[in-house]
Design goal:
The termini are far apart. α1 packs across α4. The chain has six helices and no strands. It is mainly α. It has a single domain, classed as Transferase(Phosphotransferase), domain 1 (Orthogonal Bundle), CATH 1.10.510.
Amino acid sequence: MWSVGCIFAELLLKEPLFQAKAEIELISMIFKLLGPPTNDSWPEYSSLPLAKTITPPSPQPHQFRQKFPFLTIAGIDLLSSLLTYDPERRISAEEALQHPYFSCVCHIARDPYTKDLLQ
């Protein structure tokens, strides 16, 4: 589902969500968008084999609204549910298909490419 979140973001941005040349740069970009993992957001993070070799930045809120200023509240919620650190807490495919984002035409109505479909 993480990959679905990346693809969803890429469709919205019309470019790759994380354009990194190396793993450390990628991790840094993920931490910048989602905020660093904490014991609350991903309890098992500290037990990952190389977690102790990476010094995450100080805790900060996610940056979804700044990165996706045009996305509805339901869209931000779906995206953040897909890009949740802890796989146990991440939204499932079945849950994602039932998400309010897909039942709300408000995001379609504001899109200049699709609003004519509603008339």
